[in-house]
Amino acid sequence: MGIAMFYQLQHSGLDETLRMLLGRAVQQNWRVMIRATDTELLRRLDDRLWTDPADSFLAHGVEGGTHDADQPILLGTGPILNAAQGLFLVGGAETTPTEAAELERVWVLFDGNDADNLGQARGLWLKLTGAGLAAQYWSEDGGRWEKKAEKLAKSDA
Description:
31% of the residues lie in helices and 28% in strands. It is α/β, with parallel strands linked by helices. The chain has one domain: DNA polymerase III subunit chi (Rossmann fold), CATH 3.40.50. The chain has an 8-stranded mixed sheet, sandwiched between helices. Helix 3 links the parallel strand 5 and strand 6 (105-111).
């Protein structure tokens, strides 16, 4: 069982924060899935991952292809198809405590300036920590990411 990490986006954008965290996941040799509820958001992220500088290229695919299971980074709206160790939730996407408990890491990236996004993230925090999963809340203050809250897994408490 891993940890859910909540990132409240206030100054840095989704693309910038996602790229930073994806780079860390790839350094761990983890396969990851990026899950969103909006296919237009996924299309934009896919385009961005292809057009970023070549020295920071991250191999990836969009679900629905013949090689979904082989993708180190898979973008989609459905279940994990690439044996991922990590799951990114963007644009209000959800996970269950059962799914999250099977992963090394879940990253929840949400717009801290949007009341609906903030409420959805709080609800997911309560659902995951209520099921005994560990979680951290990160916020960007003064241009730096700082851990603002942490809840240990029930077995760690």
